[in-house]
Specification:
By secondary structure, the protein is an all-alpha fold. Helices cover 60% and strands 0% of the residues.
Length: 150
């Protein structure tokens, strides 16, 4: 145990006195093939999810009235009958804030001058994330817990 600790401390000291390597002008690199691939994959997932969802029909009022919260799996049951306008507003504000928050990265030392690259990375991320979410919503076709609210 002491030998391992001594080796770790020795390695830390060696790394600490090693001269710093020259930093590249930007930590971000554009790889056209990779970035086009990610963008197209995200767009494909998004359009596939929206296409699947377009074939779903909304519940009728009679179907909504017939919903029984006891039929909901135990994982989601606690979320039924929990509608709150305050929580709905807080959720919307938080979502909008998080959606625009990456703009703050452009004012950091690392992000300065990399706005276009950061924007591209963010767009790829949003496309992929929304694509997966919309596709899963479309293929699972389940009634969300808020459908059980009065």
């Amino acid at each position: 145990m002491n030998l391992i600790l001594a080796a770790q401390l020795g390695a830390a000291c060696f790394v600490a006195v090693e001269p710093a390597a020259a930093q590249p002008t930007s930590v971000y690199r554009l790889d056209v093939r990779r970035d086009w691939g990610l963008s197209l994959a995200g767009a494909g997932l998004l359009f596939a999810g929206l296409a699947v969802q377009s074939n779903q029909r909304p519940l009728t009022q009679a179907e909504i009235d017939a919903l029984d919260r006891n039929d909901v799996n135990s994982f989601d049951r606690s979320a039924t009958e929990q509608w709150s306008t305050g929580a709905d507003l807080a959720s919307d504000v938080l979502m909008a804030t998080l959606l625009v928050s990456p703009v703050a990265l452009t004012i950091t030392e690392t992000g300065a001058g990399n706005g276009l690259m950061l924007g591209l990375m963010y767009a790829e991320t949003v496309l992929l994330q929304n694509g997966v979410v919309q596709l899963l919503k479309g293929v699972t076709n389940r009634t969300r817990p808020f459908g059980y609210n009065d």
